[in-house]
Automatic annotation (TrEMBL):
UniProt cross-references to Pfam families, sorted A to Z: Fer2
Name of this protein: 2Fe-2S ferredoxin
Organism: Rhodovulum iodosum
Domain 2Fe-2S ferredoxin-type intervals: 2-106
Source taxonomy: Bacteria, Pseudomonadati, Pseudomonadota, Alphaproteobacteria, Rhodobacterales
Keyword Metal-binding attributed: yes
Entry keyword set: 2Fe-2S, Iron, Iron-sulfur, Metal-binding
Cofactor: [2Fe-2S] cluster
InterPro entries: 2Fe-2S_ferredoxin-like_sf (IPR036010), 2Fe-2S_ferredoxin-type (IPR001041), Adrenodoxin-like (IPR001055), Adrenodoxin_Fe-S_BS (IPR018298), Beta-grasp_dom_sf (IPR012675)
Homology family: Belongs to the adrenodoxin/putidaredoxin family.
Length: 107
């Protein structure tokens, strides 16, 4: 279980507990948090689950796989250091306290 803070582009914060094994995308989707569309359902095939990881967390997450890296090319206003596809981030206790900022829009 990890407590994850999702911050919408307008500054609205959502702090939710997400079960281990789910993804950061699923944590947003299952809690009705706006700003993550996840059109492909988590298959790393749409880029609409894009979010910016808080700078403190960038180095604490597993590195991007090539598929995520490629798909991020299609995301809206990416930040090379902070952008991730949240469907590729598996939740575990290690992610407790994670903070992600949601982009102004997806694509
Ligand atoms: Fe489609 Fe993440 S949900 S790439």
């Amino acid at each position: 279980m990890a407590k994850i803070t999702y911050i919408e582009h307008n500054g609205t914060e959502h702090v939710v507990e997400v079960a281990n094994g789910l993804t950061v995308m699923e944590g947003a989707r299952d809690n009705g948090i706006p700003g993550i569309d996840a059109d492909c359902g988590g298959a790393c095939a749409c880029s609409t689950c894009h979010a910016y990881v808080h700078p403190d967390w960038v180095d604490r997450l597993p590195a991007k796989e090539e598929m995520e890296e490629d798909m991020l090319d299609f995301a809206y206003e990416t930040d090379p250091a902070r952008s991730r596809l949240t469907c590729q981030l598996k939740v575990s206790d290690a992610l407790d306290g994670l903070v992600v900022n949601l982009p102004e829009r997806q694509i």
